[in-house]
Amino acid sequence: MYAKFRRHRSAVLEIPSNKHPCHANILALGALLSAVQAGLYPGYGHAVSSQSIIRHDAGYPALSYAAPYAGYYGAAPAHYGGHHEYAYPKYNFAYSVADPHTGDNKSQHESRDGDAVHGQYSLVQPDGSVRTVDYSADAHNGFNAVVHNSAPLVHAAPAYYHY
């Protein structure tokens, strides 16, 4: 059996009535499952008010299971005015980095004896030149730095980034 539908006057569209598309079955099954499960999900609950509520409930006696009050024991008294230790400031340190993968080349060394600090650091600039800074600091002269730049011996290779 065929159902005939006329579209405008010239075309006749014939659809077999014994064949149903598969999507209609899936749609009907989904609607049925939705109707069955509709009652199983909880709702949104009661509304929440932002107004304050004054209640006059009857009071209940407080139950206490604690031991009786035994008095207050404060912290131990602090001892102020103790003596401060003074360590004479004296140190030496140095480090150096030479990483061929990133091209990071730098070094530093510093020494301190009392209030006088002397040191030097150097690094390789992106153009291949080496910058060296000699510095010193003391209570009489303050901080002084002398910068030396050397010409590049070879041109720096371009850095390739791998992400």
TrEMBL record:
The keyword Protease does not apply. Coiled coil: none annotated. Keywords: Cuticle, Signal. GO terms for molecular function: structural constituent of cuticle. Signal peptide: none annotated. InterPro entries: CHIT_BIND_RR_consensus (IPR031311), Insect_cuticle (IPR000618), Insect_Cuticle_Struc_Prot (IPR051217). One of its GO terms (cellular component) is extracellular matrix. PANTHER family: CUTICULAR PROTEIN 62BB, ISOFORM A (PTHR12236:SF75), STRUCTURAL CONTITUENT OF CUTICLE (PTHR12236). This is Cuticle protein 19. It comes from Papilio xuthus.
